[in-house]
UniProtKB/TrEMBL annotation:
Name assigned to this protein: Polyribonucleotide nucleotidyltransferase
Keywords per UniProt: Cytoplasm, Magnesium, Metal-binding, Nucleotidyltransferase, RNA-binding, Transferase
CDD domains: KH-I_PNPase, RNase_PH_PNPase_1, RNase_PH_PNPase_2, S1_PNPase
Catalytic activity: RNA(n+1) + phosphate = RNA(n) + a ribonucleoside 5'-diphosphate
GO cellular component, one term: cytosol
Cofactor dependence: Mg(2+)
Entry-linked Pfam families: KH_1, PNPase, RNase_PH, RNase_PH_C, S1
Domain KIX: 223-302
PANTHER family: POLYRIBONUCLEOTIDE NUCLEOTIDYLTRANSFERASE, POLYRIBONUCLEOTIDE NUCLEOTIDYLTRANSFERASE 1, MITOCHONDRIAL
Gene Ontology molecular function, alphabetical: 3'-5'-RNA exonuclease activity; magnesium ion binding; polyribonucleotide nucleotidyltransferase activity; RNA binding; transcription coregulator activity
Example of a GO biological process term: regulation of DNA-templated transcription
Record gene name: pnp
S1 motif domain segment(s): 623-691
Length: 695
């Protein structure tokens, strides 16, 4: 039986159909938001997966080109691997939902979202976020929902709920907030230096809308929800845990984990595990739980010491940032480079400049954005954490961290007119002990300025963490969390921005949401830390962009021609433009508007190429002198090519003041000459006079 539920959401109709399709999934919601249609399903395996100590949740956001009336490119004409947008959407669906599943649930769960029709004014990503929550809530899968998500824009000081495509273009902010009934559970934002107080207002505005959506979801669950199934609970044997604690002792565990050296801590924990393995050698059922039990013991120890004793693992104060260092120009031949270090987190970012034609082409569901000129890539090699895992290309986490840094830096980049380059920054993680994504933002900001990219202001990023107790008022916020505090804490709240305001936020938590008070305090703490990093560490190294690009970066000059003249510059089968490139060694890009970009490390060759192009597109003036090459000899004179598409005749009588018997007595094919234009007749024929023989 098909059941249909509807509500008004930001002036557009949101409809959920249950029972129409995908009946064999544990839960399915056929979502309609305007003309956007997404099928969201939630399925779970019957039994837990063996041999794991984590919840195996997978999220898929499938973009189908038919949804926007396109046939996929390529030989196979099928959708290929997920786009970057699809991967980022997977992550934004995963992050608010994962904490609400039981911590000891080991059944495989797949949340799949099939995008079947796209209305540009009704976000398919938001529709999928809502659909995943609804499908899971009405399923028999254990889940402490609902969750709801809302997008917020900012235009002329007014908040716009779930902005349309046109409104997104104008908006100063792209904020997504997910909530439970009472608390905010996920924040994702990009913003044009939006002040902290405005961002906080927007977050709470979205939270209020989310409460309305959750009330709507409750009506669906009340009528269509299945009873949650029982599952095989995964718990550490209490007798074994108690024996471990008495054998190791809390004091010894505290001594093992409380050090500012990650390698020392790992070695200490390894020694503890070896002792336990020896102790439980004859108890196989206990031996198999050693790793998980030690992890739980560490977590309990760290959380207790932080929350109750106000003591951090590396001895820092609650608001203290780890040791910071920065430098630029680390690599001699690249266009720009910088190294940023925060404790045992070390990031080197390299900036490369190229022509606008090298901008990345996008082939996703977005019909408005087909390319992007700024690309930030983030690489996390295994050596950065002392491991030996071979590289298999960027994973979802690396793509997500790269996108976060990209989002943080886009608001301060110059426009194409101000700086006509495509820009790529690559952050190589050299060492990792927490908050590498924010380190990559700092390193990238420095690298861009070192490369001569005229950014509006430097950008810094910082992450704060959270440890909570038994009540909403029992918590502690930690500035600049390291890896251990991230693993065992409850929150990773990343904020990037300039002195003026926020450019990006990404908040992940492991609990069931944050109170208003925690959100306000976390944002205030990141502002304080960000200001310190900018003024005390980054600005002394390089506070503003250099006024020129680097020695090895291409120089770019622009010249605009009449679009109707483009074919003349290119020539038949590219002959003309290739000849210019061969002669000057420059790179030339021409767009359909007539804008010509000429790139080279040699400014003299750029100027020469521009001169040749000018000679092609601009008319010759009678009386002016031009340089050219003799290309043909006739009995009555010599033809000179004064531009790639213009030949003129020097009549034999105009080769010299005295009488010339034979043209070859004065010039030969290949000679460079200076000629004066005497006449351009009605048929466009050019008559010249020899002024000087140049070679």
């Amino acid at each position: 039986m098909v059941k249909e539920f509807s509500m008004d959401l930001a002036g557009r109709k949101l409809t959920v159909e249950v029972g129409r399709v995908a009946a064999q999934a544990n839960g399915a919601a056929f979502m309609h938001y305007g003309d956007t249609v997404v099928l969201s399903t939630a399925t779970a395996s019957d039994k837990p997966r063996d041999g794991i100590d984590f919840f195996p949740l997978s999220v898929e956001y499938e973009e189908k080109q038919y949804a926007v009336g396109k046939i996929p490119g390529g030989f196979l004409k099928r959708e290929a691997r997920p786009s970057e947008n699809a991967i980022l959407t997977d992550r934004v669906i995963d992050r608010p939902m994962r904490p609400l599943f039981p911590k000891d649930y080991r059944n495989d769960v797949l949340l799949d979202n099939l995008v079947m029709s796209v209305d540009p004014d009704c976000s398919p990503e938001l529709t999928a976020m809502l659909g995943s929550a609804i499908a899971t809530c009405i399923s028999d899968i254990p889940f402490d929902g609902p969750t709801a998500s809302t997008m917020v824009g900012l235009i002329d000081g007014e908040f716009i709920i779930n902005p349309t495509a046109a409104q997104k273009e104008e908006s100063e902010m792209a904020l997504t907030v997910a909530s439970t009934r009472d608390k905010v559970i996920m924040i994702e934002a990009g913003a044009n230096e939006v002040p902290e107080d405005v961002m906080i207002q927007a977050i709470f505005k979205a939270h209020e809308v989310n409460k309305e959506i959750i009330a709507f979801i409750d009506t669906i669950v009340a009528e269509c929800g299945k009873e949650k199934h029982e599952y095989e609970h995964h718990e550490i044997d209490q007798e074994m845990y108690d024996d471990m604690v008495s054998f190791i002792t809390p004091e010894a565990m505290e001594e093992a984990v409380f050090t500012d050296e990650k390698q020392v801590r790992e070695e200490n924990i390894r020694a503890i595990e070896e002792k336990l393995a020896e102790r439980y050698a004859d108890k196989e059922e206990w031996l198999s739980q050693v790793g998980e039990a030690v992890y739980a013991f560490q977590k309990k120890t760290v959380r207790k010491m932080i929350l109750k004793d106000k003591k951090r693992p590396d001895g820092r104060d609650i608001t203290e940032i780890r040791h910071l260092a920065a430098e630029v120009d680390c690599l001699p031949r690249v266009h720009g480079s910088a190294l940023f270090q925060r404790g045992q987190t070390q990031v080197m970012t390299v900036t490369t400049l190229g022509s606008l034609s090298e901008a990345q082409r996008l082939d996703g569901m977005d019909q408005e954005e087909t390319s992007k000129r700024y690309m930030h890539h983030y690489n996390f090699p295994s050596y950065s954490v002392g491991e030996t895992r071979p590289s298999r290309g960027p994973g979802r986490r690396e793509i997500g961290h790269g996108a976060l840094a990209e989002r943080a830096l886009i608001p301060v980049l110059p426009t194409e007119d101000e700086f006509p380059y495509a820009i790529r920054t690559v952050s190589e993680i050299m060492e990792s002990n927490g908050s590498t994504s924010q380190g990559s933002i700092c390193a990238s900001s420095l690298s861009l300025m070192a490369a001569g990219v005229p950014v509006k202001a430097p950008v810094a990023g910082i992450s704060v963490g959270l440890v909570t107790g038994d009540s909403d008022d029992d918590y502690l916020i930690l500035t600049d969390i390291q890896g251990l505090e991230d693993f065992f804490g409850d929150m990773d709240f990343k904020v990037a921005g300039t002195d003026k305001g926020i450019t990006a936020i990404q908040m992940d938590i492991k609990i069931h949401g944050l109170t208003d008070q925690i959100i306000r305090e976390a944002i205030a703490r990141t502002k304080e830390a960000r200001t310190y990093i900018l003024h005390e560490v980054m600005n002394p190294v390089i506070g503003t962009a250099r006024d020129h690009v680097g020695k090895y970066a291409p120089k770019i000059s622009q010249y605009t021609i009449d679009p109707e003249k483009i074919s003349e510059v290119i020539g038949k089968q590219g002959k003309t433009i290739n000849a210019i490139i061969d002669e000057t060694g420059v790179k030339i890009d021409i767009d359909e508007s007539g804008r010509v970009d000429i790139l080279s490390e040699d400014q003299e060759m750029i100027d020469k190429a521009i001169g040749i192009i000018k000679s092609i597109v601009e008319p010759l003036n009678v009386g002016d002198i031009y340089e050219g090459e003799v290309v043909r000899i006739m009995q009555f004179g010599a033809f000179v090519q004064v531009s790639p598409n213009k030949d003129g005749l020097i009549h034999i009588s105009k080769l010299a003041k005295e009488r010339v018997e034979k043209v070859e007595d004065v010039v030969n094919i290949g000679d460079r000459v200076a000629v004066k234009v005497l006449e351009i007749d009605k048929m466009g024929r050019i008559n010249l006079k020899l002024e000087e023989k140049l070679s």
